[in-house]
Write a structure and sequence with these properties.
139 residues, mainly beta, OB fold (Dihydrolipoamide Acetyltransferase, E2P), 5-stranded mixed barrel, 5 strands
Amino acid sequence: MSQIAFPGNIGKVHGLQFSQDGKARFTFSVAESHSRFDKSTNAYKDTGTTWRRVTVFGKRAETLADVIQEGAKQQVVVIGREETRDWQKDDGSKGSSLEVVADVVGIIPSPTQQAPATQQQQGWGQEPAGWPETNTPPF
C-alpha cells in the first residue's frame, strides 16, 4: 500500500456524515498548486492544480469537521493512502476516481493567526515568568 503526503488549500467541504453503525466520515477537497521555474523569464510559472478528495474516519473526522471550513483559505498537509473508487451514474455511465483516505491532516496556521493570550512568547535569553531570579544553576 502506498502512502502519499501533500500540502494544499481546502476546497469544497462535503461535510460530516455518519454510517448506520455510527462511524463518522468527513470528506473535503484539497487543491495542490504546481509551479516550475522558467529560466527564460527568470520567474516561477503556474503549471496547474491537482484536486484530491480526502476522507477522514472516526474521531479525527469529528474533530476536523469542527475546524475545517469551506472558503476560509485554510492550508493543510495530508498524509494517507490513495484508493480508487468506482462509481455509476443513474444513466448507467461508469467511472472511477482517485481518493485519499487520510491518516493525518495537519492544519497550517496562517500568518495572520495570533497565538492565544495565555501563550505569551518569551524572547531568547529571557526567563519565563515566575522563575526565581538567582545566579546559581538549578541542579
